[in-house]
């Protein structure tokens, strides 16, 4: 995927500061609904092409996510190319903040894989266009909290659509990824009475799960989780979890997880539909985090943000019902609603006042 062959992004900016080692790409997919909002992913990509592909995919996903969440914000994303454990520094983060500031408010950044609220506090020393900051600096704190809450609400809606009840009690839920979001999701599932099976590539994450929730069963890897006897599959790590190999092997009836870009390529949504697997679109159910950081822009109120994230339940029900009525996949139904809002509300911004 290239910037011009993709043909849909408004702006893609390559940022480099040799002294700090910063190599970053900022992708702005759409500002139809407002300034583009999306996190900064700090990751050791294998190549520049891989980093570019990720930022284009992720920024597009953020536009659709923000639209479905009812936010007056467009979609953007940034990636910093490199190993955060090796090169992350105050100098690098502040250099990145300067590049964000240079966009003049077209893009608001926040946390993502490899970046944390403390990092956003450093970035904010160079730009006003940053959210997802720590409570000490007037921010909302960890956005993973409401991300997990929203995923749980989407999962409840999918359960009601499939089984007639919004409870996960007695259901076997497989969680792939026990990171920032997965650990909170496990807590909601355990509290709801679900039987949780989980995995993670990090031994520390597995140790945490075993110590915190001894009732959670652990399996060796994602393949073992996918092929196990589960009712719900919750991918909560990196994207591409649903592909030509995993979908045919999947035994779950529902997929609802926190990972972005779960569908490896176009056509996977049809494969899920043909197999009778109910897919709750990722950018719908994982929008609790962006709802939280967006609320911070106007002065954060946790109760207000949580109430908005709880509405993911209603939106998920609406999309699943629309998919059934029109005989289309939930992913297609979600895209249609997002595109409709971007077109209709975005048009109003052209009216001179």
UniProtKB/TrEMBL annotation:
Q: Give the molecular function GO annotations.
A: nucleotide binding; oxidoreductase activity, acting on the CH-NH2 group of donors, NAD or NADP as acceptor
Q: NAD: present as a keyword of the record?
A: yes
Which GO biological process categories is it annotated with? amino acid metabolic process
Binding, NAD(+)? 177-182
All residue ranges annotated as the Glutamate/phenylalanine/leucine/valine/L-tryptophan dehydrogenase C-terminal domain in the record: 141-350
Keywords of this protein's UniProt record, alphabetized? NAD, Nucleotide-binding, Oxidoreductase
Q: Which Gene3D superfamilies match?
A: Leucine Dehydrogenase, chain A, domain 1, NAD(P)-binding Rossmann-like Domain
Write down the Pfam families for this protein, in alphabetical order.
ELFV_dehydrog (PF00208), ELFV_dehydrog_N (PF02812)
Q: Which residues form the active site?
A: 77 (proton donor/acceptor)
Q: What family is this?
A: Belongs to the Glu/Leu/Phe/Val dehydrogenases family.
- The protein in question is named Valine dehydrogenase
Origin species, per record, is Catellatospora methionotrophica
């Amino acid at each position: 995927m290239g910037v011009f062959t993709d043909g849909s992004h408004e702006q893609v900016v390559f940022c480099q500061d040799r002294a700090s080692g910063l190599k970053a790409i900022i992708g702005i997919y759409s500002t139809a609904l407002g300034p583009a909002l999306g996190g900064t992913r700090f990751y050791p990509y294998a190549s520049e092409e891989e980093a570019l592909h990720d930022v284009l995919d992720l920024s597009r996903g953020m536009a659709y996510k923000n639209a479905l969440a009812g936010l007056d914000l467009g979609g953007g994303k940034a990636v910093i190319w490199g190993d955060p454990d090796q090169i992350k520094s105050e100098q690098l983060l502040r250099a990145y903040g300067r590049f964000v500031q240079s966009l003049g408010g077209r893009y608001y950044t926040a946390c993502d894989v490899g970046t944390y609220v403390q990092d956003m506090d450093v970035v904010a020393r160079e730009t006003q266009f940053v959210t997802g900051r720590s409570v000490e600096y007037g921010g909302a704190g960890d956005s993973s909290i409401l991300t997990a809450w929203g995923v749980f609400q989407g999962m409840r809606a999918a359960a009601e659509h499939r089984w007639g009840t919004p409870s996960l009690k007695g259901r076997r839920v497989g969680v792939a990824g026990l990171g920032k979001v997965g650990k909170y999701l496990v807590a909601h599932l355990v509290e709801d009475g679900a039987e949780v099976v989980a995995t993670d590539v990090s031994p520390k994450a597995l140790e945490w799960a075993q110590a915190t929730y001894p009732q959670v069963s652990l399996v060796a890897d994602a393949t073992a989780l996918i092929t196990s006897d589960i009712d719900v599959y919750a991918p909560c790590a990196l994207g591409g979890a649903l592909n030509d190999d995993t979908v045919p092997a999947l035994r779950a009836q529902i997929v609802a997880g926190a990972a972005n870009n779960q569908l490896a390529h176009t056509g996977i949504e049809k494969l899920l539909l043909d197999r009778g697997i109910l897919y709750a679109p990722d950018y719908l159910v994982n929008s609790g985090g962006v709802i939280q950081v967006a609320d911070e822009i106007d002065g954060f109120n946790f109760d207000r943000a949580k109430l908005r994230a709880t509405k993911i339940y209603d939106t998920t029900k609406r999309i699943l019902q629309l998919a059934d009525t029109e005989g289309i996949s939930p992913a297609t139904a979600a895209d249609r609603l997002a595109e409709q809002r971007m077109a209709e509300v975005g048009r109003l911004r052209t009216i001179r006042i």
